């Protein structure tokens, strides 16, 4: 096996020394070999993609749709995304100039941030939040300004935002809702108040709304509704349509910005997988009923797990969206969530992600994904109850 020389290894980009393996997947890998473990770690829908989506992918392959597509994504898919955003969230984006298809929402985030940021730029990141935001910023040499929202029910308040913007000359804010990891989301009134603060500053708003179709109660309202000139809207097909493996994301933004984002996208991936785009076109156009079925099932699981975990002595953040619970450890176990998560994995055979993986405010919490079968969730509760009864 070839081995790189130490001299060459020392010549790689020094920024790599600041990057760590993705915290969620690193912990998942650490406990995956434990026999009979139930893993509620990864944000992966347990549903299969709807049949009509799979049929569209197969038809694309059979029809020899095997050549390079358009860099921005097929016009059919961009039109479907534009129609979806109008139908669901009353947003207006021209498919020809204000929408670009990406390889998953992660590429949408990275390509957008690479377009707007330079080394040293400050970016506001409410925490606890998805850890990959900080990883992307580190890779760009940007400076995260973490705002701990734990004391406010895991919601960024207008006062917090105003103070942070006054103290830091930030170029952007990454705003994720419904939230990974907490499941917390925002009402239209709360978004309007935050938007009023953001409008007073010349700041990019990167709105990660990948979980927008999974809200329980009031429908999702997009931040782009209030800040269309400042917002870079990021989403995709992965969560809503159980299409994580198809790798379809998108960015919607003003045309001049999409033109610049397309440059980095072109240099990074050139174009997309045609069969995935064909499948996603059907998803965005035709699969609202399938989303409704999945949403209803997730709501049942959420209600079950909140009730059961509360009865066991865990505190649970109010989860109005996504498919996660952010649960506070019982006080007798202290606040070392990594140590507690490892104990649960090895002794209870239940895998949850330590809350500190999600930044300031996550300490002493665990993230649980209820995108799992009812049988698995019931067994999880049984195992947690047995563990707590003997410890």
UniProtKB/TrEMBL annotation:
One of its GO terms (molecular function) is transaminase activity. Pfam families: Aminotran_1_2 (PF00155). Transmembrane segments: none annotated. Keywords: Aminotransferase, Pyridoxal phosphate, Transferase. Its EC number is 2.6.1.-. It comes from the Bacteria. Its cofactor is pyridoxal 5'-phosphate. Residues 36-384 form the Aminotransferase class I/classII large domain. Belongs to the class-I pyridoxal-phosphate-dependent aminotransferase family. This is Aminotransferase. The gene is dapX_3.
């Amino acid at each position: 096996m070839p081995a790189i020389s130490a001299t060459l290894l020392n010549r790689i980009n020094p920024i790599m020394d600041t990057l760590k393996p993705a915290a969620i997947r690193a912990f998942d890998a650490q406990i995956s070999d434990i026999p009979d473990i139930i893993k509620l770690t990864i944000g992966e829908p347990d549903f299969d993609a709807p049949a009509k989506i799979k049929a569209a992918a197969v038809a694309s392959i059979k029809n020899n749709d095997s050549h390079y597509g358009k860099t921005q994504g097929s016009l059919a898919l961009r039109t479907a995304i534009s129609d979806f955003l109008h139908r669901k969230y009353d947003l207006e984006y021209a498919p020809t100039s204000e929408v670009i298809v990406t390889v998953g929402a992660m590429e949408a985030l990275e390509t957008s941030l690479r377009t707007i940021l330079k080394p040293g730029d400050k970016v506001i990141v409410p925490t606890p939040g998805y850890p990959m935001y900080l990883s992307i910023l580190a890779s760009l040499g940007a400076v995260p300004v973490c705002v701990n929202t734990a004391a406010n029910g895991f919601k960024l308040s207008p006062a917090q935002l105003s103070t942070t913007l006054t103290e830091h000359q930030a170029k952007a804010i990454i705003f994720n809702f419904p939230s990974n990891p907490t499941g917390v989301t925002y009402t239209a009134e709360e978004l309007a108040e935050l938007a009023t603060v953001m409008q007073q500053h010349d700041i990019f708003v990167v709105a990660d709304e990948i979980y927008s179709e999974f809200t329980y109660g009031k429908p999702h309202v997009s931040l782009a509704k209030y800040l269309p000139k400042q917002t870079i809207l990021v989403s995709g097909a992965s969560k809503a349509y159980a299409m994580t493996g198809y790798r379809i994301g998108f960015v919607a933004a003003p045309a001049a910005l999409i033109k610049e984002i397309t440059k980095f996208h072109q240099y990074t991936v050139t174009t997309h997988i045609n069969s995935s785009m064909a499948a996603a076109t059907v998803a965005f156009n035709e699969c609202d009923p399938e989303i409704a079925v999945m949403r209803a099932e997730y709501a049942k699981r959420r209600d079950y797990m909140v009730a059961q975990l509360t009865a066991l002595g865990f505190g649970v953040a109010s989860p109005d969206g996504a498919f996660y619970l952010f649960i506070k450890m019982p006080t007798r176990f202290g606040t070392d969530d990594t140590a507690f998560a490892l104990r649960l994995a090895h002794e209870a055979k239940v895998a949850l992600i330590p809350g500190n993986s999600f930044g300031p405010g996550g300490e002493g919490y665990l993230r649980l994904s209820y995108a799992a079968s009812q049988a698995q969730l019931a067994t999880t509760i049984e195992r947690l109850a047995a563990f707590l009864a003997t410890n």
